[in-house]
């Protein structure tokens, strides 16, 4: 469950980021955000659950279910991503996806 404060306080150091939302944005009916990087090439992650559903950070990093973290996860010896990388791409380094 996520709880939000009724009157959240922004830390002083973040006040410089406060700005008015442009009128065109307020009336926009559709927005598209394309998020595509080199991790899109292997396009693989172990489907274990959503962010924040595991308390053990070592398990989480070893079995991360987000393709965006593929490079990090495949760098952990014995992780499912490392095994997938070896099985599918052999000794090819991640940098070759770029």
Question: How would you characterize the overall build of this protein?
Answer:
The protein is mainly alpha-helical. It has a domain at 54-90 and 93-97. The protein has four helices and no strands. The chain has helices at 23-26, 57-62, 70-74, 80-89. The longest helix is centred in the C-terminal third of the chain and has 10 residues, at 80-89. The chain is extended.
Put the structure in a nutshell:
This protein is mainly α and 98 residues long. It is built from 4 helices and no strands. The model has no long low-confidence stretch (mean pLDDT 86).
Uncertain spans:
none
Number of strands: 0
What is the overall pLDDT average? 86
Strand percentage lies at under 5%
Give the helix/strand layout.
Elements lengths: L22 H4 L30 H6 L7 H5 L5 H10 L9
Which characteristics define this entry?
98 residues, 4 helices, 0% strand, mainly alpha
